[in-house]
Structures are given as C-alpha cells and as structure tokens.
Specification:
Elements (H helix, E strand, L loop, with lengths): L1 H22 L4 E5 L4 E5 L6 E11 L5 E8 L13 E12 L2 E14 L2 E8 L1 H4 L4 E7 L7
C-alpha cells in the first residue's frame, strides 16, 4: 500500500511539472513570413538567441507596409519564462536605407503549441513605425530560403 501511495505522489508531481515542459519552445528559427520577423531559439531553449524585425506602417486599407528594421544586440538575449514568454524593453539600432538611429523598442512574445505570437512597438516619433503583432512557426535549426 505504501508503494501505491508513493507512486501516486510521484505521478502527481510529474503531472504538475508537465505544463512547464510543454511551454518550452522548440529549438530553431520562428519566422513570420509575411512581416519577415525572425526569432531564433538555441539548443538550451532558455532564451531568445536572436531577434530581427522590420518597421511597419498601417496603410489606409488596414494592411501593413514594412521597411527598414532592427536586430537585438547579442548581449541582450531575452530569457524565456517557464510559461514560454519573453520580453525586451530597451534600445536598438534602427536601419532605414542608409540612415541609422538608436531608438527604443518594446517586444513581447509567447511560444505555445509550436508557434510564436508577439508584438513589436518601436519609438513612433523617431521612426514613424506603428505597433504591430506577429506570429510565426518554427522552420527548424537551419532554415533554407
């Protein structure tokens, strides 16, 4: 009877821990093919190893037009929480043609069910970019274009 009780207790612990494992993203690059947002997760799956995204402007018909872009500095790798979420609030170098400027960006994202959803907000006054949402799927460790 003691073995059964111990087995049930162990099974309960495994079931409680299972959701945290399920939220961990897969290793590889998540891409929003329409907006060209690229988010890479390394082998440890504990942080975003690279993030690059464009600027977007909402047109009169509601569609987004993208141009320019930015990447997070290598030193700024957002941690991925046990629930699969990450965020970054800081400065990046925004490239638009030959012009470069340092601007503030806010990024948030969440991995769930093998997909990624998130938002990007660049400093509108300096860039003219509108906040936007993105969603991507995992294209593997070495995606081919």
């Amino acid at each position: 009877m003691r073995r059964l009780g111990a087995l049930l207790a162990l099974t309960s612990l495994v079931l409680i821990a299972a959701p945290a494992v399920a939220a961990a993203p897969k290793q590889g690059t998540y891409i929003d093919t329409k907006l060209q947002v690229y988010v890479t997760v390394g082998a440890k799956r504990t942080s975003v190893s690279s993030f690059s995204a464009p600027c977007a402007r909402k047109l009169a018909d509601g569609t987004l037009q993208t141009y320019g872009g930015f990447s997070l500095p290598k030193a700024k790798r957002p941690k991925i929480s046990s629930k699969g979420a990450f965020s970054y609030d800081g400065n990046v170098t925004f490239n638009s043609g030959s012009a470069k400027s340092v601007v503030t960006v806010k990024i948030s994202g969440k991995f769930a069910n093998g997909k990624l959803k998130g938002t990007v907000t660049l400093d509108t006054a300096k860039t003219g970019c509108d906040p936007y949402s993105f969603s991507g799927k995992n294209f593997g460790v070495n995606p081919q274009g």
